[in-house]
Amino acid sequence: xxxxxxxxxxxxxxxxxxxxxxxxxxxxxxxxxxxxxxxxxxxxxxxxxxxxxxxxxxxxxxxxxxxxxxxxxxxxxxxxxxxxxxxxxxxxxxxxxxxxxxxxxxxxxxxxxxxxxxxxxxxxxxxxxxxxxxxxxxxxxxxxxxxxxxxxxxxxxxxxxxxxxxxxxxxxxxxxxxxxxxxxxxxxxxxxxxxxxxxxxxxxxxxxxxxxxxxxxxxxxxxxxxxxxxxxxxxxxxxxxxxxxxxxxxxxxxxxxxxxxxxxxxxxxxxxxxxxxxxxxxxxxxxxxxxxxxxxxxxxxxxxxxxxxxxxxxxxxxxxxxxxxxxxxxxxxxxxxxxxxxxxxxxxxxxxxxxxxxxxxxxxxxxxxxxxxxxxxxxxxxxxxxxxxxxxxxxxxxxxxxxxxxxxxxxxxxxxxxxxxxxxxxxxxxxxxxxxxxxxxxxxxxxxxxxxxxxxxxxxxxxxxxxxxxxxxxxxxxxxxxxxxxxxxxxxxxxxxxxxxxxxxxxxxxxxxxxxxxxxxxxxxxxxxxxxxxxxxxxxxxxxxxxxxxxxxxxxxxxxxxxxxxxxxxxxxxxxxxxxxxxxxxxxxxxxxxxxxxxxxxxxxxxxxxxxxxxxxxxxxxxxxxxxxxxxxxxxxxxxxxxxxxxxxxxxxxxxxxxx
Length: 660
Prior knowledge:
Blueprint: H1 2-21, H2 24-51, H3 61-70, H4 72-90, H5 97-128, H6 138-141, H7 143-153, H8 155-179, H9 187-206, H10 221-227, H11 230-242, H12 254-257, H13 261-272, E1 278-280, E2 289-291, E3 302-308, H14 317-320, H15 328-335, E4 338-344, H16 351-360, H17 383-388, E5 393-397, H18 407-413, E6 417-419, H19 438-451, E7 456-461, H20 469-472, H21 489-510, E8 517-523, E9 543-546, E10 554-561, H22 565-572, E11 595-599, E12 604-609, E13 612-615, H23 629-647, H24 654-657
Parallel strand pairs: 3-7, 3-8, 4-10, 5-6, 5-7
Antiparallel strand pairs: 1-2, 4-9, 8-9, 11-12, 12-13
């Protein structure tokens, strides 16, 4: 309330200064521009609420009004960030109609681009049920892929939008001509007005960083979605990308600010170093350990890890008990394996975080850089290198472009020979003639493995179940199989990935490689969109270990996460090389059951146990947290310990991290 009172006082003082400045022309032009931006924010939120009423089922009309009022702060900050410089230039004491025309044209053109961003977010919200956030970083890491999609599917909308931007620029010139020639008021009031306006326009850049945290979600998901706007969330992600941890003050980031480092390290050792089957190897690296006892024996077997994009339980009959018929090949493979029913991803919606955790055992934590932002330069355990030291050939194949989401460079850094979309030749008919997807990638991996010395480790990362679904699945596959799944594009594309998997498995069988291979099936993150009642459910993904003759098929209720995959493979394949990871082998019953989860692009860190999930702060989604109160402190301590060790280079020695 104090903050709102200060802003209201500032606004009233601004009105008084405007009157004393005695220039209606610049005031009117500024009002047209600022009012247009705020009106767009209001219309976008109302449009979101009307278009997706099923996402906001519990909000009454009065609650919607409350959200719109509460959302004024992010709206104003987003508008000032977008058009603040133009507002300042408009109000310089220049007595020129041409000056007003020029900058109002720029401002109105920016208004058009702002409208495009909000409209695009409304469309995207329908796919993922949240505002555009970290996705905006794809523009910088995967621009060519995004441009190809836009050019193929949205060129008309883009052309219309750009035409609207040009029309608005002309409207700015017209409006400035109508308001006339500006006057210069008393120099004192001109200076006061410019000082106040400049201070306001600098707020998105110098304001307390609390303003750029995921604002409003402490009231619930529905309220948070309606309080925010996409320009605000995109700005938030850009700030975090440039300065990881920038959105966290002491009151939000307890894991670094108010946590004792020695106690934090002891907590980390309890979770990660309590195994009776492993031992620590170097006090300088407190979480580095090596395995003394092994719980299964897959030595010499080949290993294939299938990382499936946005993999969800309910559409796979062998996991859900349903009868969709979309995944017969996955179903057959899963029925031969161990299904882990309580398994979680480290990130909510980031492929990079999911794959990074699987290949390194390191989750994204609050306050620290992750892969693609600097962590790749820190010595960590690298799955490819661990297997290379066992005499394995290591390969990673994915159908996207090499730089897409930093996946290709990450796999290279983890010790894999990488084949990406640029290395594949289209074999099926897609909407775009140059598109390749899961079938081409599977066939590439099959060809590589058939010619590779054994044993080998092959990793496949799928693409077809990533938005936009129309782009990444062929027009037809499996003798018209796509016709069975017209009503749900996600299920259709999942059926395509499953069909391609079937072709891949046939290749392995024909080459005599299938029987000697262990399979890991895991999701990179849950499918975006579904709303759950508990926070931990946002992170649940399938995980299946298929090792006939080694592991008996069945169900396993052990609570585990993607960070447990590397330690589990160390156990299963008898790797004696020291390693460090934020997890434990799923076969080691002497270790605690838990999972780590990075929330809101690493801004918060959560701990999942059998009691539920708790973040290191109670301020975000309190009604969705159901873990024990003590878990909050443990989450903060775990985050602090791992942050310290990674920052100090005390995770693993460089000589065992990088294969010489």
